Amino acid sequence: MASLAPAGQGGLRAADIQTDRGNPHWTRYPGDRALDAIPGEDGWPLVGTTFMQLADPDRFARTMLAQYGPVYRTRSFGQRGVELVGPDANELVLFDRERLFSNEQGWGPLLNLLFPRGLMLMDHEAHRIDRRALQVAFKPEPMKAYCDLLNRDIAAATQAWGAGADRFGLRMYDAIKALTLQTAATSFLGIPLGPEADRLNHAFTAMVQAAVTPIRRPLPFTAMGRGVAGRRMLVDWFTRLLAERRARPGQDMFSQFALATRDDGSLLPADVVVDHMIFLLMAAHDTITSSFTTLIWQLAQNPDWQDRLRSEALATAGAAGRAVAYADLARMELTELAFKEALRIMPPVPAMPRRALRDFSFKGHHIPAGTNVGINPALVHADPALWPEPDRFDPLRFTPDKVAARHKYAWVPFGGGAHMCLGLHFATMQTRILAHHVLTRYQITAAPGYRPRWQAWPIPRPRDGLQLELRRIC
Ligand code: HEM
To answer: Which mutation among 275, 282, 421, 461 tests ligand 1's pocket best, with the greatest number of atoms within 8 A of CB?
Structure first.
C-alpha cells in the first residue's frame, strides 16, 4: 500500500492529500450512474444533500429512512454515497468478515490532512501490526499508572470548581473539556500543566476545529490553515519529546508508544509513533468530553440515578474526594450501566465512513466497488424495536440478561471488529473516576424547563456548554 506523505511534505500537494487524485491506490468512485438503482436523493445542484445532512443529521437520516428504507443513497461532498441502517448493517460494515471495506478510504477524505496514518485510517495487515504494537499502552500496569494520575488531577480540578462557593452555576461541557485537556497533558504526554501544555492544547484544538471545516484547503487565515500549522507544531514537538521518552520513559501513554515494538521486535519508527500519538489525542479528547457531559445531563434529570451512582462511588472509594483504586473500579457497576445508556442516547461518534473495495449486496441492493458507505449508530440506538421507549434513560437495559437477548450490533458507540475503539477501557476508567469525584462532591440539578440544544456534528455537544446548578455536599 502506498503511504501518504504528512501534510505539506513528500512532494504531494496538501490539497491532494485527501483526494482520489492524491491517492492512486484508492478504489475509484464508480460514478453516479452506478448507484442509480439505490433509492435516495441527490439534493440541490452542486452541494447535493451536504448541507441538509450537516444542519440536522438526525432529522435528515430519520426522514430518509422513513422514505426510502434501510438502504438509501445521498450525495455529499460531490459524490453519491450509500447509508446502511440497522444492526445487521452495523455488523456487516464493522465486523467486516470478508474485508470488503476500507477505513483509510472512508476516513481519509475527511482526516488525512490533519491526522494522517492514525490507526483508524489504516487497513488490514498494516493496521493489525500497528494495533498490536500500540495495545501495550492499555495493559494493566500502565492503566494503573494513568488511573493514579487521573485521580490526582480530577480531584484537584473538580474541588476547585466554583472557587469554594456552596452553590454555583457551571457550564458542565466547558469544564469537562478543560479538565480532559489537562489530564491528557499529564497522563497521555507526561508533561506538567503550565504554559507548554497550554501551547500544545492550543495547537491541538486548532487541528480538531479544522477537521470539519467546509474550506478544505489550508489557506492562510482559515481554520484549515491554522489546523495545518497546529499539526506542524505538534509533529516537531512530539519528535523532540520522543528521543527523551525513549531515553527516560515515564508513566505516560507517550512513553508506552515510544517503546512499542512490532511483531519482529523492532521499535515503531519515530514518524509513525508521532502520527499515532496525535491521532490518539484526537480520538480520546472530544469523545470522553461528549459522553461524560451526556451522562451528567441525564443524571441531572434523573436524580434517583444520580443518588444511586453517588452511593456506589462513596462505597467504592470510602469517602468523597479520595482516589478510586484501579482494583476497585470494577465495583462501580451501576456507573458502567449508566455510562452505557448515555452512550446509547448520544453516541459520540455519529458516523463511521468506509469505502467498498469490492462489489457487494445488502438487503437485495447491489453496491459497486468504490462506493462510499456509511452506517448510522444513533438511528439504531433509537430504534423502538430494539430499545422500548428509546427516549427514556434506563441504565438497566444493560444488565447481562438484556444484553444477551439483543442483537450484538444494536449498540455500537465504540464501533466493532478490527477497528473497535482501542481506548474503550481507558474511556470507561476515566468516566468512573470523573463520576466519583464529581458526584461525591456535588449535587447537580438543571433549572426547571431548561432544554439545551445539542450540536450533533462532528461530535455531539450542547451549544450553550450545558448550564447546570451545583451544590457542594462535601
Ligand atoms: C467515550 C469515549 C470514546 C468513544 C465513544 C470512542 C469511539 C470510537 C469509535 C466508534 C471508533 C471506531 C471508528 C470506526 O470504526 O470508524 C474508535 C476508534 C478508536 N479510538 Fe475511540 N472512542 C472513545 C474514546 C477513546 C479514547 C479515550 C482513546 C484513547 C485513549 C481512543 C482511541 C481510539 C483509537 C486509537 C481508535 C482507532 C482504533 C482502530 O482503528 O484500530 N478512543 N473510537
So the answer is: 421
